[in-house]
Design brief:
By secondary structure, the protein is mostly beta strands. It has two helices and eleven strands, in the order αββββββββββαβ. The strands form two sheets. Strands 1, 2, 3, 6, 8 and 11 form a six-stranded mixed beta sheet that branches. Strands 4, 5, 7, 9 and 10 form a five-stranded antiparallel beta sheet that branches. Strand 9 and strand 10 form a beta hairpin.
């Protein structure tokens, strides 16, 4: 657990990445006066590191019920079955269950590929009656442009 946390803290300071600029171009979602943004994707060995943040522009704190990762179809026509595959993270850096204005987290998943007609979705739901939900859709082209770093940092 400590090794993952130390590694991810290095990522956030770009101590072990190849270059300091994010290769993700404006991947964000705005809903309910909230903005969910993909900061960067890192790749090392058999893992992807998804660095994302949420900005809450309301005065109502967000109580996190769950954060889900799934592969979904990009487009679904009317009366067409859609397929969704739930992904399970290997590690989640931040275990905070409540935030007021800002939240940032890094989720680690096993390396994978998926077809162009699918997209990776990060979904955060609230455990209130209102049940605010915000989700971020990541295209395969963004996954392919992930920053890489030396896998020796994983040991």
């Amino acid at each position: 657990l400590c090794a993952w946390s130390c590694l991810i803290s290095r990522l956030s300071t770009n101590a072990c990445t190849r270059g300091s600029e994010a290769h993700v171009n404006n991947v964000k979602t705005k809903v309910h006066k909230m903005v969910m943004r993909l900061n960067n994707i890192y790749s090392s060995g058999d893992y992807f590191f998804l660095d994302f943040s949420v900005e809450n522009k309301t005065d109502i704190p967000f109580d996190i019920d769950q954060i889900r990762l799934k592969l979904t179809d990009k487009k679904t026509a009317k009366a067409t079955n859609s397929q969704m595959v739930e992904l399970h993270p290997v590690f989640t850096l931040e275990q905070t269950k409540r935030f007021r204005y800002g939240y940032r987290n890094v989720i680690v998943i096993r390396k994978m590929t998926f077809p162009n007609d699918k997209q990776l979705t990060i979904e955060m739901t609230e455990n209130q009656i209102s049940g605010r939900t915000i989700s971020l859709k990541v295209n395969y082209s963004d996954v392919l442009s992930a920053d890489s770093f030396n896998p020796i940092f994983l040991k």
